[in-house]
Amino acid sequence: MTALPTLSVTELTTERLLLRPVSAADREGLVELFTDPEVRAYLGGPRPRAAVEQMLDHLETAHVPGSYVIADRDTNEVLGGLWLNRRSPDVPGHVTDDGNELELSYALRRNAWGKGVAFEAATAILRAAAHELPDQSVIVVTQTANTRSMKLVERLGFRVVETFEQFDAEQALGTATLFSFRG
Ligand SMILES: CC(C)(COP(=O)(O)OP(=O)(O)OC[C@H]1O[C@@H](n2cnc3c(N)ncnc32)[C@H](O)[C@@H]1OP(=O)(O)O)[C@@H](O)C(=O)NCCC(=O)NCCS
Fold it and tell me: Which domains occur in the chain, in start order?
C-alpha cells in the first residue's frame, strides 16, 4: 500500500524554535535524547547507544517525512524531536476503522522541559498540517502515568476518548480534528 501522506514541509520556524531535519551536529544531543532514562521512562526505557547511532546514520542521510528535530532558533542546538506519522493498523489505539491516522509524538531533552517548547513545536506542526492536508483525525497516544505528556495532550486540545493496554502499560488515546489546529 502507498504510504498515506504526512506534512511535506521540511523546515518551520516559530518564535523560539526551528523545526528541521536531523544534521550531523545533532548527534550527541539526539543520543542523549534516546538514551536518557528519564526521557524514556514512559517510552519503554533507554535505547541502546549502538542502536541509536545506527538510526542516526540513516536519518542524517535520508530525510524521513513527518520527522523533525526541534532546535533552538538562536543557537540551532537540538532540544528534542517531533513526529507526525501514520499509526499502523497493526497496533492498538485507533479512532477510524482503517487506522493509519495521523499520529503526533514528541520527546524533549530533559533540560528543555517546563518551557513550553513541546507545545510551541506541536502547535506549529499541527497548524501547518491543517493548512496542507485534508481534514481528518489526528491522534496522540501516551501512557496515562506520563503526567507531563497528558497535560500537553490536553493543552493542545486533544480529547482523551479511550484507554487501552500496550507495552504492559495503560495508554490514553487522544483525538482531535486536524482543522481544529488551523488557527
Ligand atoms: C512530554 C514532554 C514533551 C512535555 O514537556 P513539557 O515541557 O512539560 O511540555 P510543554 O512544552 O507543554 O511545556 C509546558 C510547561 O512549560 C511551562 N512553560 C514555561 N514557559 C512557557 C511558555 N512560554 N509557554 C508555555 N508553557 C511554558 C508550563 O508552565 C508547563 O510547565 P508545568 O507543566 O511544570 O506547569 C516532556 O516531558 C518529554 O519529552 N517527556 C519524555 C518523552 C515522552 O514521554 N513523550 C511522550 C510520548 S508521545
Answer: 12-181 (3.40.630.30)
